[in-house]
Amino acid sequence: MGAAVLSSIFMMTSCSKEQGCTDQNAANYDVLAEENDGSCQYEGEIVFWYNSATSAELLSYDVVSLTYYVNGQVVGSSSADVYWSGAPDCGQNGSVTVTQNLGNTTNLVYDYSVVDDTGYEIWSGVANFTANTCTSIELTP
Predict the structure, then answer these.
(1) CA spacing 20 to 30 A to 135: which of 15, 27, 31, 85?
(2) Does domain 42-138 have CATH number 1.20.1250.20?
(3) 3-state secondary structure of 13
(4) What's the pLDDT tens digit per position in 82-121?
(5) Helix, strand, or coil here: 139?
(6) How confident is the model at residue 25 (pLDDT cuts 50, 70, 90)?
(7) Global pTM?
(8) 3-state helix, strand, coil in the chain (%, to 5)
(9) How far apart are CA 93 and CA 98, in angstroms?
(10) Strand runs (DSSP E) across 19-95, as ranges?
């Protein structure tokens, strides 16, 4: 009887599906999971950038540096003379990239602002973070 019980337990456990996060867009995607257990966690990224004309305008107003805020928190800074000819990739060297933990949702919206070295707000708007996505926000005059 002992062997039959062990055999039954083995068959029940070996037939159960591997649980975990089955969404490939999640930060904790489990390639071995066959059944979603609701544990998926998401991240989204935003990269801020501006072009040479915007940089020149900032410099003409004696702006030296910029500080970036998302949801009221400082997320980065840059020199006003650093610019891009097109949107950089998220995480690219020298870029101001923000990675946001979205929890178990695939989209979150936060306010952002960019202030100069005197504390003057130059830009503000809404940053839409989407799971497994790099979104670029071009800052223009």
Answers:
(1) 31
(2) no
(3) helix
(4) 999 999 999 999 999 999 999 999 999 999 999 999 999 9
(5) coil
(6) confident
(7) 0.80
(8) 15, 40, 45
(9) 13
(10) 19-20, 35-36, 42-49, 65-70, 73-79
